[in-house]
Amino acid sequence: MSNASYRDAIFSTPLDRVARFSFDEQVVACFPDMIRRSVPGYGQILGMLSLIAQRHLRHGAHVYDLGCSLGASGLALAGALEPDAFRYTGVDLSPAMAERARQTFSDECPDYAMRVEEADIRVLDYSPSGMIILNFTLQFLPPADRDALLKRLYDALEPGGVLILSEKTIDADEQDNAWRVERYHDFKRANGYSDLEISQKRTALENVLIPDTLDALHERLQQAGFPRSVTWFQYLNFASVIAFKEA
Ligand SMILES: Nc1ncnc2c1ncn2[C@@H]1O[C@H](C[S@+](CC[C@H]([NH3+])C(=O)[O-])CC(=O)[O-])[C@@H](O)[C@H]1O
Ligand SMILES: O=C(O)C(=O)Cc1ccccc1
């Protein structure tokens, strides 16, 4: 597959039947554009990941990036850290994503220890790690599978390790939620998406991307064993949390 990247126009023409959203070849081909125009603060979150790694990662420690897509978090780390500062494993269930992430790392950071596994993060055998990144991935798992995964990630983290959990969120209060969602649609419109694109994508994501409240995310992290978690980023209905394992 080519490494070219296109503008996201997937939902720009009327579809008779809007299929469930999936991370297929069509999405992969425009993914960098789609995620930047659709996730408020995406670039800022990636930039901060490196600063968090610089503060919290022991030299040479292992990092997991779960649901790595095209490996953007890995590239951000490689752009800020020396090659011997960390070892990276990206994991993605989508063959098209995994293949292209692998290609990107071999083209753009050949001196870094970076690998990509095509696997389901719910059944992976985890190696000990200093940092685990879940950047907009937990939201795509069935809610019933989320706690068990977080527990396994807590167990895989070394003492003093950190989990970064970024998610689209929902508000428990209906009125607050409606306001946030409307402003999110304004954000998308300002980034060039039409009302048709916004509405068809919303349909495609129904029962595929199932958001938790921010409170529920902290609750899940606590259930998993993390003694402390902090919301370090929030922009409309998108947030990122850091959870700390005891040193
Ligand atoms: N069970 C699963 N196992 C493995 N991967 C999965 C699973 N379910 C979904 N995925 C993968 O999780 C990724 C979610 S996108 C992450 C963005 C990236 N983190 C980024 O920082 O650019 C988020 C978004 O597009 O909003 C996709 O690549 C799926 O194939
Ligand atoms: O576009 C949306 O509505 C989102 O929630 C963000 C997103 C970004 C990329 C793939 C799927 C969802």
TrEMBL record:
It comes from the Bacteria. This is Carboxy-S-adenosyl-L-methionine synthase CmoA.
